[in-house]
């Protein structure tokens, strides 16, 4: 059964509940009530009727010998809807079972994660050891570690020396 609601603006809601405008906005946020903005930009909130009919909570201290007005639940005239209670209890037990299954699943993932972290640490250690054992070649003083090409392709005869990809042109100067 759908809950009965009443569409109110924030100002109307604040007046009905005796709250400030900001407190009414916070109450709507906490309650998760549906908000609808019309074409004129006015926001209306679908407020459950039970919230509006609830008497405001007393903030002043009441003497212990003063008896409060008794509600129908206390008078014995109220009979709770047992089917709704049983349905809620069944749903709660179902959700609790599902929560326990998810907790077990998460603990399994945590254990697997711990094993993988340990394997990762071992692999990093092995890699560091291999890197440390790697023999780096040493060069004799007369051998340059970077080899230069021995020949060049598609270069005209006057450009026979190349440095870093750019050819240096040799000019023929007959007077010098």
Task: Provide a compact summary of the structure.
The chain contains five helices and five strands, in the order βααββαααββ. It has 176 residues and is of the alpha+beta class. α1 crosses α2.
Attribute tags:
two-stranded antiparallel ribbon; 176 residues; 5 strands; alpha+beta; elongated
Provide the structure class: alpha+beta
Q: How many DSSP E strands?
A: 5
Oligomer state equals single chain
- From the N-terminal CA to the C-terminal CA, the straight-line distance is 109 Å
- The helix tally amounts to 5
Envelope shape = elongated
Low-confidence stretches: none
Strand content: 5-15%
Largest sheet: 3 strands, antiparallel
| SSE pattern | EHHEEHHHEE
Name the helicity range. 40-55%
Radius of gyration: 42 Å
Give the strand order, joined by hyphens, for the main sheet: 1-3-2
Mean pLDDT, nearest integer?
76
